[in-house]
Amino acid sequence: QYQVLEIMNKATAIAFKLPTNASVAFPIGTAITVLNIGAGTCTISAVTPATTTVLSGGAVAASPTLAQYKSAVCIKTATDTWYVVGAIA
To answer: What does R_g of the chain's alpha carbons equal in angstroms?
Structure first.
């Protein structure tokens, strides 16, 4: 399995974008942990929403957000499908 830690650190809003499989072919089972240490809210979403599906329990399933000192894991379950779990809103 492939694991990555992405640290987001910005005083204002910031975005973490999951790429299409055609752009970056992460293997299925990849887990990307996003840790937001900055004061700005971090939004997790797809670079190309029409191609890459992001699903979460957040208020907006395709664009979950992380407050400061919160983290979430993006798990690739299919070619262009990611589930986001963790301290999301």
So the answer is: 12
Q: Are 64 and 84 in contact (CB under 8 A)?
A: yes
Q: Which two tokens stand for residue 37?
A: 């240490």
Tokens of 76: 């690739």
Query: In one letter, which amino acid is 57?
Result: G
Residue type, 64: P
**Torsion sign (Cα): 7, 10, 11, 15:** negative
Q: What is the pTM of this model?
A: 0.95
Distance CA 68, CA 71 (A): 9
CB 83 within 8 A of CB 56: yes
Token pair 């664009």 in the structure block, residue: 63
pLDDT in tens, 61-88: 999 999 999 999 999 999 999 999 999 9
Name the strand (E) or helix (H) holding 56: strand 53-56
